[in-house]
Specification:
4 domains, six-stranded antiparallel β-sheet, Cathepsin B, Chain A, alpha+beta
């Protein structure tokens, strides 16, 4: 199936809700229920052919077949490792996650955070799985991947050495949910080695579908406390940690009982009055369930004696449960970083929290058509995909006291971990935001060109172009209409992305691109309109039957092109000549008569004028990035997706389009529009049976 067909099918699936957490897409087309049923009927244990128990699933370099770390590995099922394996023992807990011989501590911290939110955990770890009732050696987990939820099926053969699990394991030897979750995540990315190195926020996103924000607390913005309060009110997941300077400091305990290199959760943010003065407090949780802060505002500190009883009653404290309060000023001084994962509305089931409003868009940077690079590339920048968002309503209770509309923008590039295996690195990505000019406001059926973008200043954007999986930024903008333009730093960098926008209030957002239309000039010609010179030329080409065949047309056009030095061409193909005759042959002879030939000649002259006008450097070819405007000159408006298909089909080396390909494209487009109109019942859609479909696509 072509990539275009896959794209169109995927869009149809989304319209049906496929790809949501409730209708997750089976990864590798493996359906958990049917595979499990088949195993139970055959009384066999599942063996996954798509992620086999061998070297290829371990890795390719550090865990490759010749690496020392992969030697002596045996794949065993939990029933081979203990007498009574359990999926989850007494609920999922932080201590269920112990890191093994793989550098995926970032993933361990993210999994640990899952255990603090039962509803979120069940979205990733579907309930009802066990090693007893209905056991068939098969399990499944769900992950968010680039805008869609996928259901990943695995068998329970786990890599071991000397009878011990090689990678993540539980402190309880009979518990295996975390090891199986890690295996499913490794399968999603192609191997265990693909998980080596990463950031906690990546796991947050893949377990929730949320947008993450990172804050260096040494550079905390002035209103961060209010941002924390609003994030908690929106159900966001918050984590923090103290940086370490060496591996020896990991989980080292400070004099005030804070643990370095350890993931804490932020669970509250309140303001109290102490001796009549306001004090900002944050509540933290150590997932261990013990080891609490011993400084000011700790459970039994004297500061609580100076708080009014009614305020004190609202705050839970003085229990050795791993949760504690501390002053916000101490928080930013002792901790190094704060991570906020803002959740999508469908993640939150509680009505006690407000929800972000959310929209997401898929896009591609295609070389030669939509991979325009950043604003340093004025000739191509405007060719990047564009997305418009309309902000109407200002925030309630603004965190900085100033009116405006808060939005979080996240730009994520796809398949980075999978592509590590083939040596492909991530692109440097970023985005800019412009205010929509007045003349284009209220419209999404436009594509802003260089005549607009090169003469306007952006109002916001990412701080830098970075080769990360996702970059995200928080902005506050006045009400209005804005266009977001995501791009790579350099032009002609291939890639796929997802753009996500969170807003506090409802905001209309959509791709900003032209409607697909055709306004083709029709040449009405009769025998009397054909002058003597055209008749003589036609007679020379047509021969005795007085009609021009495909072969004769190809010879004539190539002879015409060969005599010109101002345009380049590899010669007209038989396919292009056949399309020309299909378009212009009105009497069904499969050849061109005199009037039809004259009509073609007028078209060729018109196309030649457009081509030369768009050949800015007089090279004899046209840059593929000029194709959108050239098509417009010829009467066609196409959106970015159609443009990508056109460029991939008609562009030559260095993304140049020569004259014969340009003509072939315009003729083919005109033929396709005419065919569509024949079947269209004035609703913008057509319906074909298999006979019609095959006859049309094969013609």
């Amino acid at each position: 199936m072509s990539s275009t067909a896959k794209f169109l099918a995927k869009r149809q699936n989304r319209e049906k809700g496929i790809g949501t957490n409730k209708k997750a897409i089976p990864f590798h087309k493996q359906d958990y229920q049917s595979l499990k049923r088949e195993c139970l009927e055959k009384n066999t244990l599942f063996c996954d052919p798509t992620f086999p128990a061998g070297f290829e699933s371990l890795g390719y370099e550090k865990l490759g077949p010749n690496s020392s770390k992969a030697q002596g590995v045996e794949w065993k099922r939990p029933k081979d490792l203990c007498t009574n394996p359990q999926f989850i023992v007494d609920g999922a807990k932080r201590t269920d996650i112990c890191q093994g011989e793989l550098g995926d501590c970032w993933l361990m911290a993210a999994i640990a955070s899952l255990t603090l939110n039962h509803n979120v955990l069940e979205r990733v770890v579907p309930p009802g799985q066990s090693f007893s009732d209905g056991y068939a050696g098969i399990f499944h987990f769900q992950f968010w991947q680039y805008g869609e939820w996928v259901d990943v099926v695995i068998d329970d053969r786990l890599p071991t050495r000397n009878g011990e699990l090689l990678f993540v394991h539980s402190a309880e030897r009979s518990e295996f949910w975390s090891a199986l979750l890690e295996k499913a995540y490794a399968k999603l990315h192609g191997s265990y080695e693909a998980l080596d190195g990463g950031r906690v926020t990546e796991g947050f996103k893949d377990f929730t579908g949320g947008i993450a924000e990172d804050y260096e607390l040494s550079k905390a913005p002035p209103h961060l406390f209010k941002i924390i309060q609003k994030a908690l009110g929106l159900g966001s997941l918050l984590g923090c940690a103290i940086d370490t300077t060496s591996a020896y400091e990991t989980e080292a305990v400070t004099s005030l009982k804070l643990v370095k290199g350890h993931a804490y959760s932020v669970t509250g943010a309140e303001e109290v009055h102490c001796l009549g003065c306001p004090v900002q407090l944050v509540r933290l949780r150590n997932p261990w369930g013990h080891k609490e802060w011993m400084g000011a505002w700790s459970d039994n500190s004297s500061e609580w004696n100076n708080v009014q009883p009614e305020e004190k009653a609202k705050l839970n404290y003085s229990a050795e449960d791993g949760e504690f309060w501390m002053a916000y000023s101490d928080f930013v001084r002792h901790f190094s970083k704060l991570e906020i994962c803002n959740l999508t509305p469908d993640t939150l089931t509680s009505e006690e929290v407000r929800h972000w409003n959310y929209c997401q868009f898929d896009g591609n940077w295609k070389v030669g058509s939509t991979a325009g690079g950043c604003g340093n590339n004025p000739a191509t920048f405007s060719s990047n995909p564009q997305f418009v968002i309309k902000l109407d309503d200002i925030d309630d209770d603004p965190y900085d006291g100033e009116d405006g509309c808060t939005l979080l923008v996240g730009l994520m590039q796809k398949d980075g971990r999978k592509d590590q295996r083939i040596g492909r690195s991530l692109n440097a990505i970023g985005f800019v935001i412009y205010e929509v000019p007045d003349e284009y406001k209220g419209r999404s059926n436009v594509h802003l060109g260089p005549d607009v973008l090169l003469y306007r200043r952006s109002v916001a954007g990412s701080k830098a172009f970075t080769n990360l999986r996702e970059i995200s930024e928080r902005f506050k903008l006045p009400p209005g209409e804005y266009v977001i333009i995501p791009s790579t730093y350099e032009p002609n960098c291939q890639g796929s992305f997802i753009l996500r926008v969170f807003t506090e209030k409802k905001a209309a957002a959509s791709p900003m691109d032209v409607n697909i239309t055709a306004n083709i000039k029709k040449d009405r010609i009769s025998d009397n309109d054909v002058d003597t010179s055209y008749k003589e030329l036609f007679m020379q080409i047509a021969g005795n039957d007085q009609e021009v065949s495909v072969v004769e047309l190809q010879q004539m056009l190539n002879n015409f092109i060969s005599k010109r030095t101002d345009i380049k061409s590899d010669g007209f193909s038989r396919e292009t000549c056949r399309h020309i005759i299909d378009l212009l042959d009105k009497d069904g002879t499969g050849k061109l008569g005199l009037v039809e030939f004259h009509t073609l000649w007028i078209k060729i002259q018109r196309y030649l004028e457009i081509f030369k006008n768009r050949d800015a450097d007089k090279s004899g070819t046209m840059s593929s990035y000029e194709m959108r405007d050239a098509l417009k000159d010829a009467g066609f408006e196409v959106n970015g997706k159609v443009l990508q298909v056109i460029i991939s089909h008609y562009a030559e080396k260095q993304q140049a389009i020569d004259f014969d390909n340009f003509v072939g494209c315009l003729i083919h487009l005109e033929m396709l529009f005419e065919t569509f109109q024949l079947f269209d019942r004035n609703n913008g859609k057509i319906e074909l049976d298999i006979l019609q479909w095959l006859c049309l696509t094969l013609s």
